[in-house]
Amino acid sequence: MRAAWFALVLVCLSGAIAPPPIAHAAETQRAASGPLAAYASGRFLEAAEAAARSPTAEDRALAARALLAACVLEQPDRRSGLVAAAEAQARAALAADPDSVDARLQLAMALGLKGRRASLGEALRRGYASEAKRLIDEATLRDPSEPWGWALLGGWNLEVVRRGGRLGARIYGASTAKGLAAFERAHALAPQDPVISLHFAAALLGVDAQRYGPRAQALLATAIAAPAPDAFTARMRAEAETTYAALTRDGPAVAAARIQGRI
């Protein structure tokens, strides 16, 4: 039984929240050339290659972020190789700076994507879920002002509750209240981040589409109205627009079914 719930948490860490790489608007606005400019314009593999040549933790974390973006948006057929490369870059970033929050979050997301493709035996043996959760917790402790740490934590709680019910929530100490509070904190820290707004809305629709439909609709509207400083964010904002249209036209149940598995 415990092994089954471990598999549940593995899926939760890589479900509604794991795919989006962290996009720091201030970084992309400042960068006129180099890896950040390539990332901002959607040239993700070029950005990763350039950033990986640097020994700094910041650039290695950027390389991981760009590889994850390429995996999600451009080349799903190369997912295994891109995720493995992203994990390697995130681990290199963490080795270069053991205090790096960005490295921890990039590594947690890479492990989540990696875990989705693993068998249960491999997942248990390699400890993908437990390592990812530890990294998220460490990130929020080191920098409580980083919104994506809270967004990942919120997604974890809400997905455990949605997929595991009361038993799963009790085993892992998850709750809807904790998930909502973490997501609300992420949204308060980054109210103009359309990626966080979109994923918060998707998580709410996954938990209870009817109950949380109005809140999800408001979050999607916020995402649509927010600026998109880079190509990844623009794609996520476009996803918010189509989800909003489905929600208002077809209702929360249809919108929930549509969004699950797309982001």
How would you characterize the overall build of this protein?
This protein is mainly α and 263 residues long. The protein has a single domain (2-190), classed as Serine Threonine Protein Phosphatase 5, Tetratricopeptide repeat (Alpha Horseshoe). It contains 14 helices and no strands. Helix 4 (44-52) runs antiparallel to helix 5. It starts with a helix and ends with a helix.
Q: In one word, what is the shape?
A: globular
Order of SSEs, N→C? Answer: HHHHHHHHHHHHHH
- Percent of residues in β-strands: under 5%
The SS-based structural class is: mainly alpha
Brief digest:
By secondary structure, the protein is mostly helical. Helices cover 79% and strands 0% of the residues.
Task: Write the topology of this structure.
Elements: H1 2-13, H2 25-30, H3 35-40, H4 44-52, H5 57-73, H6 79-96, H7 101-117, H8 120-126, H9 128-142, H10 147-172, H11 176-189, H12 194-225, H13 231-250, H14 252-259
Question: Any key phrases for this structure?
Answer:
263 residues, mainly alpha, Serine Threonine Protein Phosphatase 5, Tetratricopeptide repeat, disordered N terminus
